[in-house]
Amino acid sequence: FKHILVDEYQDTNLAQYKVFGVRSVILWAVVVFVISAFFLGLTRTGRRLYAVGTSEESAVIAGINVGNIKFISYVLCGACAGLAGVLYASNYATVNSEIGTGYEMTAIATCILGGVSVVGGRGRIDGIAPLPLYILIRYKARHIEKDDSKDNVIQ
């Protein structure tokens, strides 16, 4: 009975499942990117999110309900973090509360290199699209130095 559950888990692993030879984590990232680009660029709520990020006072004067927009942004951010956590747990079958420690500045620098403004209200999501590749290359390069086998470079 235990063997059946393990086999079912391996067959339905959310993060390691492959579609046309591409791991589903990549496909999830592309789907989230496309939905985010559409939401931020082509919907009224996305444009309002930019307005609130630029200046809350100006957004209030323009008639935007700042509280609702902030609530929506926190919900969407939490949903993305939850999806990332599920994909991570599915990929590695373990979760640790200190997993992302030390990557904060890398994430901020990646966003700034992509054109996102630190003070808000400016930037486009398509500017940061190629930057996760930079992080992947940098991460793998550090591990190549520690690991002599070249089979581990690209999985």
Tell me what you see in this structure.
This protein has seven helices and two strands. It has helices spanning 2-11, 24-42, 44-54, 56-61, 66-92, 104-113, 131-146; strands at 18-19, 22-23. Strands 1-2 form a two-stranded antiparallel ribbon. The longest helix has 27 residues, at 66-92. The radius of gyration is 19 Å and the shape is globular. Mean pLDDT is 76; it is low at 1-9.
Order of helices and strands: HEEHHHHHH
Count of runs of 4 or more consecutive helical residues: 7
**Biggest sheet record:** 2 strands, antiparallel
| pLDDT averaged over residues | 76
List the helices and strands and how they pair.
Elements: H1 2-11, E1 18-19, E2 22-23, H2 24-42, H3 44-54, H4 56-61, H5 66-92, H6 104-113, H7 131-146
Helix pairs in contact: 2-3, 3-5
In short:
This protein has 155 residues and is mainly alpha-helical. Helices cover 64% and strands 3% of the residues.
Keywords:
155 residues, mainly alpha, 7 helices, globular
